[in-house]
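Tokens help. One example:
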Amino acid sequence: MAIPPRLVVREMQPAEVGLRIDYFHDSSDEYLTMLGVDRAALPSRAAWRSDYAADYDLPVEKRGGVALIWELDGRTVGFSSADRIVFGEEAYMHLHIISPELRHKGFGVEFVKESARYYFRTLRLDRLYCEPNAFNTAPHRTLQRAGFRYQFTHEARPGPINFHQTTTRWMMERPHSV
């Protein structure tokens, strides 16, 4: 009998933000385009690190963002972040599996469920949104399987590192058990 993999979702520590910065800066232009990310809009590594440090110094209810690490059997394989936070109301979630060999294996669904629980609890949210590029199909299947509901598809610029694109908005309401 095989031992099931151990999945852990935990808050990203300030010393770990390089993982997130490197993920974007080291990705190919083709991959960034699939994500809807504009390389020219990425802050420098130093500026991004400084912004994260300043945000981490704030109490969670005043932060502009919260980031989580995804671990599989003790190995970091991805991360999630929440931004556009209105504490006690809503936030927008992002999800990234950094290990290409683990994409399309179904782990993302469990990581997204655990991340959503964390955001609902920690940020005291009523609603959690995710708005991936409409043509990047993998996150749409993951979000649906994790319990998010389709809202609509529209033209938007989801964040400061994104270009204007077609996105699909998904939403999850606060479960009673959180």
